[in-house]
Amino acid sequence: MSSITIKNIPTRLHETLKRRAAMTHRSLNNEIIASLEVAAGLAPMDTNQMALDATLMHKAFRGEADPGDIDRFKKEGRE
Q1: Residue 49 Cα to chain centre, angstroms
Q2: DSSP code per residue over 7-33
Q3: Which of 10, 14, 52, 72 is most buried, judging by how many CB atoms fall within 10 Å of its CB?
Q4: pLDDT at residue 27, rounded to an integer
Q5: Domain extents for the chain?
Q6: What global pTM score does this model have?
């Protein structure tokens, strides 16, 4: 198997991956591999994972978003 190193992972992404790994009883490395397989179309996304992702996003969001927050959310990850 090949190895790669990923640098400069945003804190929020790292924390989300760690939470998902804990919730799915996987190591952080295995969670990243599973996420990459789905993103690359090599593995189907299961509905349980989709529900888990929605729950994590809901928990991460607190309160109401103002227009500035909405613009920031839309631009996040596009830079």
Answers
A1: 11
A2: ----HHHHHHHHHHHHHTT--HHHHHH
A3: 52
A4: 96
A5: 11-60
A6: 0.57
